[in-house]
Amino acid sequence: MPKRFVVATSEFTDLPCFPAGFELAEALTAAARQLHGTGTPDDTLSTAVALAVRLLPGAEHAGISEIQRGSRLRTLACTDDVVRFAGEPRAGAREPHPDWEHLWTTPVVRIDDSEADGGGNALCGLGLRSALSLRLRADRRRLTVLTAYARKPQAFDEDATRIGRLFTAHVSFALDSATVREQLTEAMRTRDLIGQATGILMERLAIDAAGAFDSLVKASQRENVKLRDLARRIVDANTGAGGRGVSER
């Protein structure tokens, strides 16, 4: 399950500021460098929300949320607690972003004034009048959304929407890259762990590498435990018990 991150933009003093007249292409290039310089998907999400406030005209707060069909949303990263609370419906209030359902089929949803329909939602209650929601990822079950918020109505115009769509494209690419890197790193760690467990079984059971690996696989299936977790258990037991207590056959 993804973690929840609250990120203060003041923590990112090294992020570029985009003065008036700064070319959009250069601003997006600078933002892309920041995004691709992150080490993990969590870091990418945290950097993305901080950059969104600096890059999108009118934005005061930003957050990235994951929505699953038929369930409530989960905030993955946000610039402050206001955004986190905006994603949590209060008792007696309607869903905070009823228009988010449209993001399954359209890339952008814009709320010009949360008070226009009489209020009663979480955005209105928090003083957030405008919202610009942009789809990052979508599949049959899960939707990931970047949303910028403002306290004044009609804060996001067509220019903000255009910049937002360009920016989220960069975020999506960087997030995919960070995810692949993390998966490859985990695969390498898993391979090393299984290799250690195989070596332990070879020594303890006096069998060759193929036999040790086969024994490990069979034990994993028999105990309904992931191969990686079983390998870690064997390595930990061997280390903690001075090499005794390994009995996976």
Primary descriptors:
alpha+beta; elongated; 6 strands; 249 residues; disordered C terminus
Give a short synopsis of this structure.
The chain has 7 helices and 6 strands, in the order βααββαβαββααα. By secondary structure, the chain is α+β, with helices and mostly antiparallel strands.
Give an overview of the whole structure:
The chain has about 250 residues and is α+β, with helices and mostly antiparallel strands. It is built from 7 helices and 6 strands. It has a 6-stranded mixed β-sheet with strand order 1-3-2-6-5-4. The model is unreliable at about 1-15 and about 245-249 (pLDDT under 50).
Secondary-structure map:
Layout: E1 5-6, H1 24-36, H2 41-55, E2 61-68, E3 73-78, H3 81-86, E4 108-111, H4 122-125, E5 130-138, E6 142-150, H5 158-205, H6 209-223, H7 227-240
Helix pairs in contact: 1-2, 1-5, 2-5, 5-6, 5-7
- The total of helices stands at 7
Tally of strands: 6
Tell me, briefly, the overall form: elongated
Low-pLDDT sequence parts = 1-16, 243-249
- Give the end-to-end Cα distance, rounded to a whole number of Å: 33 Å
Question: Mean pLDDT score, rounded?
Answer: 81
Rg, Å, rounded: 24 Å
Largest sheet: 6 strands, mixed
What proportion of the residues form beta strands (DSSP E)?
A: 15-25%
